[in-house]
Amino acid sequence: MTKLLVLNGPNLNLLGRREPELYGHRSYAELCDLIRAHAAESGIDVEIIQTNHEGVLVDRIQEAQGVYDGIVLNPAAYTHTSVALLDALLAVGIPAVEVHLTDPAAREPFRAVSYVRAACAATIVGRGFDGYLEAMDLLQAMAKKRA
Question: Which of the following is catalytic: 78, 100, 115, 132?
Fold first, then answer.
């Protein structure tokens, strides 16, 4: 069974209330329910973490080594600021997919920069909640090829 870690960065816990014109009206709990349902259907063991703290994300990436087959990462605002997340991903060498609900490049110019992208096997943007499911499927396929 493929084991995946889904990491969500700052403010994603506010989905459904935060800028619904950008992120929609579905809640973070609904996102987690969708991820868990997809994992159950796909034979994936999944753990989902959300934190507003960069260091917690770094710690969880480091702790993932030897435990998970892949990481789905929505670093949120840390996408554009965190070399620490990039370094953690590079250090552990676990396949990761960067996910964003919207397309950051279509928003403010500073959002076009992604520090983590260089350590990710793929980036999925602008697909809403479905982007997480696509990332999970991609990482599961990658894990099966390595097995």
Answer: 100
Taking only the tens place, the pLDDT of each residue in 87-123 is 999 999 999 999 999 888 888 787 889 999 999 999 9
Range of the domain at 100: 2-146
Q: Is 100 a catalytic residue?
A: yes
**Which pTM does this prediction carry?**
0.95
Q: H-helix or E-strand containing 99? A: strand 96-100
* C-alpha dist (Å) from residue 125 to 32, 105, 130: 18, 9, 10
Spatial separation of the C-alpha atoms in residues 49 and 27, rounded to whole Å: 15
Number of structural domains in the chain: 1
Active site residue 23: yes
Catalytic residue, candidates 23, 28, 68, 132: 23
CATH number of 142's domain = 3.40.50.9100
